[in-house]
Design brief:
Blueprint lengths: L1 E5 L10 H10 L4 E5 L3 H9 L7 E5 L11 H13 L3 E10 L7 H18 L3 E6 L2 H8 L6 E3 L6 H9 L3 E4 L9 H9 L5 E3 L21 H12 L3 H15 L5
Parallel strand pairs: 1-2, 2-3, 3-4, 4-5, 5-6, 6-7, 7-8
Helix pairs in contact: 3-4, 8-9
Length: 253
């Protein structure tokens, strides 16, 4: 399995990353994509590549930190990505109209800068979208870039618009929660070649571990739930999600 979205650089994992990786490998998670979301974490995820070969990195500015997006930052990221094959995507980035206090125009400018960089480098982008479906898709239609809506949480109707465009949806432990019936419908409908799995750890622990710190080893719970909803063996879900991630993140070795 591949955990396509983790945040092992955060304080919740301080001093424990080696053990967390060991548990992940024991659970069958072979690769972990460590996702940057602000300037500090982008530096950290690149530094952490020396910890273990299973780790990969992405560079991105979350909507909360959109004001930090500048041409100089993009130029620096471009150089890093060209120099390091284990930086596999731009993101997470996008739009957040739910909690972000950053003005919408600032969020859009940062989103477009990151989309432009991903397109120019021919690497994919990881999208954070919260209560901004229409604006997010309108902006994305201006670019030709591989994209995944991480931690998918919108409607089945919107998901169908993404799938029509060849955009992936990625699922977290949220799909295991009892009150996630609408999201479970999305999982049931998702085309087999357009889904991935992730933990978004340390957040969103699956129902079995709810209230605890999430970690990559718990990806098995997401895979299991997808298998249940799609009436597939877990091993098939694991295999297909891994193939999809390898196809999407072209730099995964």
């Amino acid at each position: 399995m591949i955990d396509t979205h983790a945040h092992l650089m955060l304080d919740q994992f301080e001093g424990e990353v080696d053990e967390v990786i060991k548990r992940a490998k024991a659970a069958g998670v072979e690769k972990i994509i460590n996702v940057g979301c602000d300037l500090k974490s982008c530096k950290q995820v690149v530094e952490m590549l020396s910890v273990d070969d299973c780790l990969y990195a992405t560079l991105g500015l979350h909507p909360y930190d959109a004001a930090d997006a500048t041409d100089a930052v993009m130029a620096d990221w471009e150089k890093q990505i060209k120099d390091n094959e284990r930086i596999v995507a731009i993101g997470e980035c996008g739009l957040d109209y739910f909690k972000a206090e950053v003005p919408k125009d600032v969020q859009e400018k940062a989103f477009r800068l990151q989309l432009e960089l991903a397109q120019s480098l021919n690497i994919p982008i990881i999208i954070h979208n919260r209560e901004a479906d229409d604006d997010c898709l309108k902006i994305m239609d201006d670019y030709k870039v591989g994209a995944v809506f991480h931690c998918y949480g919108s409607t089945a109707e919107f998901a169908r618009k993404l799938w029509y465009r060849g955009i992936y949806t990625s699922f977290t432990g949220i799909i295991t929660y009892p009150k996630s019936e609408e999201l479970q419908v999305v999982v049931d409908e998702v085309p087999m070649d357009l889904f991935m799995v992730e933990t978004d750890c340390p957040y969103l622990a699956p129902q079995k571990y709810r209230g605890e710190r999430n970690e990559p080893a718990y990806l098995t719970e997401v895979v299991s739930k997808i298998g249940e909803l799609k009436n597939l063996p877990e091993k098939d879900v694991a295999r297909i999600s891994t193939e999809n991630a390898s196809e999407f993140f072209l730099r995964l070795s």
